[in-house]
Amino acid sequence: MRVLSNELKDHINSEVHLEGWLHKKRLLGGLTFINLRDRKGIVQAVIKDKAEVDKLKGMQIGTVMEIDGQVVEEPRAPGGAELHDVRIKVIVPVSYEMPIEIDKPLSHKPDNLDTLFEHRAIGLRNINEAKVFLIRSELLRLIRQFLYNNDFVEIQTPKLVGNAAEGGAEVFKLDYFGKPASLAQSPQLYKQVMVGVFERVFEIGPAFRAEPSATTRHVSEVTMLDIEMAFIKSHDEVLNMVQDMLYFTLTNLWANHSEELRQLKAPELVIKPSFPRYSMKQIHEMYQEANKVDMSAEIDLTPDEERWICEYAKEHDGCEAVFATDLPKPKMKFYHKAKDDKSAQSADLLFRGLELATVPVRENGYEDLIRQMKEAGIDPDDESFRFYLQAFKHGLPPHGGCGFGIDRLVEKTLGLGNIKEAILFPRDINRLSP
Amino acid sequence: MRVLSNELKDHINSEVHLEGWLHKKRLLGGLTFINLRDRKGIVQAVIKDKAEVDKLKGMQIGTVMEIDGQVVEEPRAPGGAELHDVRIKVIVPVSYEMPIEIDKPLSHKPDNLDTLFEHRAIGLRNINEAKVFLIRSELLRLIRQFLYNNDFVEIQTPKLVGNAAEGGAEVFKLDYFGKPASLAQSPQLYKQVMVGVFERVFEIGPAFRAEPSATTRHVSEVTMLDIEMAFIKSHDEVLNMVQDMLYFTLTNLWANHSEELRQLKAPELVIKPSFPRYSMKQIHEMYQEANKVDMSAEIDLTPDEERWICEYAKEHDGCEAVFATDLPKPKMKFYHKAKDDKSAQSADLLFRGLELATVPVRENGYEDLIRQMKEAGIDPDDESFRFYLQAFKHGLPPHGGCGFGIDRLVEKTLGLGNIKEAILFPRDINRLSP
Questions:
Q1: Which residues of chain A have pLDDT under 50?
Q2: A78 FRET partner, CA 20 to 30 A, in A36, A52, A383, B282?
């Protein structure tokens, strides 16, 4: 019966059977120490018997093995115990030397990211690299838990579409059995149609943007959480749902995984159940006053302002998550609802200086929507929009939602420097493999 | 405070506030009856007051409204109660007549499927059409629950890849910033690499196949569940995990949703915790004997055999899910592990006559894998395989898993006739919209 590394301390003075990878090997005062890695962590084993040591001859890091031995309390070992009287059985011998050292922290310096990704397939075997993606899996589990509890239905919408022009980003084009097609840059149109069915829907899936920029913020394939909810009475109702979801997710993550988060040097969480809300205009004014610069020409928030307002809110409101509300009209998409002449019923959710989501109310009037499409230079008669407009023509209630960047959330939760570090196998203008 | 339709029976003799869509309107003996639809179902309301009836003048199905009224017990109404003394507030007036009748069952006859999909955006507002996708969401929730409980980590792997030649299906090609790229037909290579990190991984996401066939089984965009588990001792261990997952999912679905399943006329579930296992050779022989036909020339199971063995197992073993084991060598992919000269360590999971998944042990030896790639005509030096082979070069334990068709599972669970009916917005050779 296999025992996992994190269960070792429950078997002190017992004989156990472990399986995993050779993670480290060293000689110390005539003894051979090895680290065995499994999906739960590391076990240290001390080997005296020459016959057993000989089995390791030529065996490189990565060798797959079973080891049996006696569990001995050892406060200096990982998990507070180590294995003695070890018998080794090599399952998959590895004779090639690792091109990188996976028992030491891997460099995430900007200059070293290419090397990191080139060796991703084995670099992720580093315990801390793997933890990033355990945290990511857990964030997604918590988000789903919140949304199920709030009566949202999970949907899957097509990624192959005729026209993906709704969002404003560059799209990837392809040939679809002789017809021109695009890769969906968001499930925007489909999820809005689906509130006419389920009122509350969400999707977690890939979205594709042919981003020609090579920055720390841009990748060409992202994981988006798309949420949409109907029968809302106000913009605040949508903001509250997104706020409650993020609060639930992050506080539960910290409650259940504080040890791993600290090992990853994730910044301590500073959050409140109710996120501060400042209008874009207010933020421009506050920033202008605090920094003695003229912001009157700016429509959108600058990256500096995004960072500053999150710092400000962390200090003054005790919360690193902030809503920048009343986004200016020029930022408005055709499917957003206007508030007045100057602004839209839309807010940006900022967290630790980065926009995680735009959270608007949608225009739900059929004729108003057609007018806004035309104003945006989009042809409402395009075949790709027929199903979308059909849903409005036959009644869609007031609704709102958001497109929420999961990769950005992972990045900011863990304090990584680049969105690509939050993605297993990132894609950008220069990278299509691994 | 909004009350939902399924809560009405808890408010008998009280005043309630409802919100939803006008779903049906009829005059009966001087009274106006309306059905209001919300995300939980239908409420019947009886309107006497002429001023209220007048508000409905010209209002078509789909009109979004709030209604207030008194809840009265009424065994003949949906949910056992109806609304009297109704006051109506129209929120979104709809003046266009519905092109289809959504309060009656929509036709799913093969000839009518195109009409069904053309009107999908509003056709899904039919209560039973919507239920298909509630069941789908619930199936996915249960699958995730099982996998989390069994220590699987959820991953997201890239859909934009340099070379997607691993699976044998036709792939979609596109231009990726001047480089040739493909849409992933499966996460096969990535998930295998990831067992080197987490031992047990899964992904639920889209997969793309440029299927030139227009059948009831083929679509060009599917939702796949990919599972992979390491440190296995036998093929049976993998089969057991997939079997336990399906058993858990389906029995819980029936335990929690039997009413909806019966409304959808889903076939009653006949399943056992342990699925019968027959080798392909046995199935050929059993079928040959039962049907007096010569199957000696067949390598793969014919669709008729797939149906027959499921019927046979349902009758003789009390289980509609069957494993067809020892798949013949010619069906083997380069990443499968051979059993002997004739067969692979691979099985097909059949359910109600359809293959849901192929469940093999993977070849985990670095040199053996390279040999099998070459035998399959795949160049191991192709840049797209570098990361994949790197993981094997540095030690991957024995592992196995499956690619499991979620759309097929939904189709067969509900007894639909065509995979497309299990997909919100299906894609095939003739269909790129809606």
A1: none
A2: A52
